[in-house]
Amino acid sequence: MALKQAFFLITFLTLTHGQQQALLDYLERRLLAIEDRISVWHDQTNRYATELRDFKQQIVGVLENVEKERETLRSDMENVNTRVDRMEREMDYLETQHPAPPCVEVDDKLVEQQVTKVKEKNKGKYEKLTDCRDMISSIKAMKIVKRIGGPIGLWTKDPVAESDKVYVFNSSHGHVIYEFATIRELTSSLGLTRARKIKLPFPWAGSGHTIYDGYAYYIKEGQEFQVIKFDLKNESVVDSAVFPSEEQVPVYGLSPQTYIDLAADEEGLWAIYATKENEKNICLAKMDPKTLDIEQMWDTPCPRENAESAFVICGTVYVVYNTKLPSRSRVQCVFDVSDMVTSEDAPLVYFPKRYGSHSSLKYNPNEKQIYAWDDGYQILYKLSMKQKLDV
Question: What is this structure's pTM?
Answer without folding.
Answer: 0.70
